[in-house]
Structure formats: structure tokens, C-alpha cells
């Protein structure tokens, strides 16, 4: 916990990464790649469904709109855990755990209960992000950086849903 | 080549995430219970740099926008559903896989839930298209278009406002 970076430094570097990504991908490939992660889930779920039932995916309007299979966005999301692993190993912070400590204090240390909670939470963030058109990276970072009107509605929704539920579940305990 | 650039971008991003403590369940729940604003500070400074940088690129003609369309009802309702999931999962779609890289194996179930959520959305999309997406649909609009002001000016004002907010947070000792 001691040797990390300031969140402001991390955020500013992420802003630079966004700008560099947009510039480089547009100059090299003719379309700007803004950072965003939730579309990758659609492309992978479509790829998995295709293996089971190719016709259902071919008929599905949403999969046709977003596309399926490996692309830049999927590679981006695959890169994130690799970079995190590298950073954690280099700084002696890699530690295997099934249940976060703060979760334990509210719901106990059962990995099964945590796995079910994480699964439901994961389902809701992607379902909600797809309905809204993006997640905190796609709408929050990339959308707000473009001053998109949609981003301001979505980010309002993130906190309008998240803050009341988190206060109910975890309480206002300062640590 | 494009795939490789995507992977490298992701690796750099994940490295930054881990160093800035954005991959921790406690940091996300800290934001949503308003007790630890690390994740908010990260996002705010990202948008300060991103807003000026992206508006510069587009103003200089070096890259175009890729605006997400505004559907007021779907943006808000989807955002709220996202927020409810965020409070339970304690990660976001990028930091859940990132958390696995740091050793937080519960992120695996977050990602699996996300894949099922994506497939479920793909099959329920026609319903939302007939309902929510029709409400407050204004297309691909941005603040500078609505305000009829130069994008770089709006970007600079917005970044300045965020910086003032950051200064306020620091002054209040958050």
C-alpha cells in the first residue's frame, strides 16, 4: 500500500493514454480508438454463442450492430490484467485472495457467497453499461473528454444507483 | 497490427490501474460510500487531461470524435442498473479483469457475470429499442454543439471546473 502512485498521476497518465490511442489509431488505421471496455464483453459473448448456435448470432440485431470476435477492444481488455500482473509482481503486491476484506466484514468470508455476489454484480454492470451505451471508461473518461451529452446522463446514473445501495450494504465506515 | 496496439494499450492501462490502486474492491466501495475518493480523483484527472487533449486533437484536425448517442432514458436507467451492480461487485468492466491480475480471484466471477449480462442484453435489445431508446433520443450531440461554442473553449472551461473541484476536495481533506 505504501509505494503506489497518487490517483491524480494515474488519472493524468490515463488521460494521456486516451489521447495517444486516439491519435495513433486514427493516423495508422483511419478510425479513432477511444478507450472503453464494456463492448468487449459483447464481442466475446457473441463469439461464445456463435460456437453453440451460429444462426442465432447471425440473426441477432445487437450482435450484428456491435460485431463479434476478437478485435482491438477485446485485446485492450485482455491487456489490462497482464499489465496489472506485471505491476503487482514488480512491486511485491501480488496476493491471491477470493474475498475482499471489506466484503468479509459485511457478508462473511465465504468464497461461494462472494462469487455469487460478484457474478450478479458483473451481470448488472455489463447489462446496465450496454443499455446506457458504455461504462466509466467509455462514457466517463472517453465520453466526458469528448464533452458528449450522453456521458453526463450516464455518469449521473452510475452514482444515483451506486451510492444509495453501497450505503445500505456497507454503511459509512471510515477506514 | 491493430490487435497488437490494443494489447499494448491495455497492458499500459493495467499497469497504471495497479499502481494507482484502482483495482481494489475497497477503493470502489470507498467512493460509493463517500469515504475514500481515490477512484473519483483518478477519473477526474483523467478527464481534465483527456478533455483538453481530445479537443486539441479534433480542433487541429488530427482525429475525429466518436460520440456515443444520447438517449436520455436509456442513458439514465442503464447508468442506474450499472450503479447497482457496481456496489455489489466493487469493480468496473475494466478493473474486474485488472483485479484478477493483482490476484483478486473474485474478479473472475465478475467477468463471467459480465459475459452472461452481455449475452442477455443482446437478446433483450429489441425490447429496449421499442421502449426506452425512443425517449429523449437526440443522437450524437456534444456540449459545444448544444451551446454553439468552440469545442476547445468548452473543453478548457470544463477542465478548469474539474480542477477547481479537485482543489476543493483537497482543501476539504477528502
TrEMBL record, chain A:
This is YeeE/YedE family protein. The chain crosses the membrane at residues 7-29, 72-90, 111-129, 149-170. GO terms for cellular component: plasma membrane. The keyword Oxidoreductase does not apply. PANTHER family: INNER MEMBRANE PROTEIN YEDE, SULPHUR TRANSPORT DOMAIN-CONTAINING PROTEIN. It is a multi-pass membrane protein. Pfam families: Sulf_transp. It comes from the Bacteria. It comes from Thermosulfurimonas dismutans.
TrEMBL record, chain B:
The keyword Transmembrane helix applies. Coiled coil: none annotated. Keywords: Membrane, Transmembrane, Transmembrane helix. Pfam families: Sulf_transp. The chain crosses the membrane at residues 42-63, 70-88, 108-128, 149-169. This is YeeE/YedE family protein. It comes from Thermosulfurimonas dismutans.
Amino acid at each position: 500500500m505504501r509505494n503506489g502512485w497518487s490517483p491524480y498521476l494515474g488519472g493524468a497518465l490515463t488521460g494521456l493514454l486516451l489521447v495517444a490511442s486516439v491519435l495513433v489509431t486514427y493516423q495508422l488505421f483511419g478510425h479513432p480508438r477511444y478507450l472503453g471496455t464494456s463492448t468487449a464483453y459483447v464481442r466475446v459473448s457473441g463469439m461464445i454463442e456463435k460456437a453453440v448456435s451460429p444462426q442465432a448470432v447471425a440473426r441477432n440485431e445487437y450482435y450484428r450492430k456491435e460485431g463479434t470476435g476478437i478485435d482491438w477492444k477485446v485485446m485492450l481488455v485482455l491487456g489490462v490484467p497482464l499489465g496489472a500482473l506485471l505491476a503487482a509482481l514488480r512491486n511485491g503486491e501480488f496476493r491471491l485472495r477470493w474475498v475482499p476484506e471489506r466484503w468479509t466484514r459485511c457478508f462473511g468470508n465465504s468464497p461461494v457467497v462472494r462469487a455469487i455476489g460478484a457474478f450478479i454484480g458483473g451481470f448488472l454492470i455489463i447489462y446496465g453499461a450496454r443499455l446506457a451505451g458504455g461504462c466509466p471508461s467509455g462514457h466517463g473518461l472517453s465520453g466526458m473528454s469528448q464533452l458528449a451529452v450522453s456521458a453526463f446522463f450516464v455518469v449521473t446514473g452510475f452514482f444515483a444507483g451506486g451510492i444509495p445501495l453501497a450505503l445500505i450494504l456497507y454503511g459509512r465506515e471510515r477506514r | 497490427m491493430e490487435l497488437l496496439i490494443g494489447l499494448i494499450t491495455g497492458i499500459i492501462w493495467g499497469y497504471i490501474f495497479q499502481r494507482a490502486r484502482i483495482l481494489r474492491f475497497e477503493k470502489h466501495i470507498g467512493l460509493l460510500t463517500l469515504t475514500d475518493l481515490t477512484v473519483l480523483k483518478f477519473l477526474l484527472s483523467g478527464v481534465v487531461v483527456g478533455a483538453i487533449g481530445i479537443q486539441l486533437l479534433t480542433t487541429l484536425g488530427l482525429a475525429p470524435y466518436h460520440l456515443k448517442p444520447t438517449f436520455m432514458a436509456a442513458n439514465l436507467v442503464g447508468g442506474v442498473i450499472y450503479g447497482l451492480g457496481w456496489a455489489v461487485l466493487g469493480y468496473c468492466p475494466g478493473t474486474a479483469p485488472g483485479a484478477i491480475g493483482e490476484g483478486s480471484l473474485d474478479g473472475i466471477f465478475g467477468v463471467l457475470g459480465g459475459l452472461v449480462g452481455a449475452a442477455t442484453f443482446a437478446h433483450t435489445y429489441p425490447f429496449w429499442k421499442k421502449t426506452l431508446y425512443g425517449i429523449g433520443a437526440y443522437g450524437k450531440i456534444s456540449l459545444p454543439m448544444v451551446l454553439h461554442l468552440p469545442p476547445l473553449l468548452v473543453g478548457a472551461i470544463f477542465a478548469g471546473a474539474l480542477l477547481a473541484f479537485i482543489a476543493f476536495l483537497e482543501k476539504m481533506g477528502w
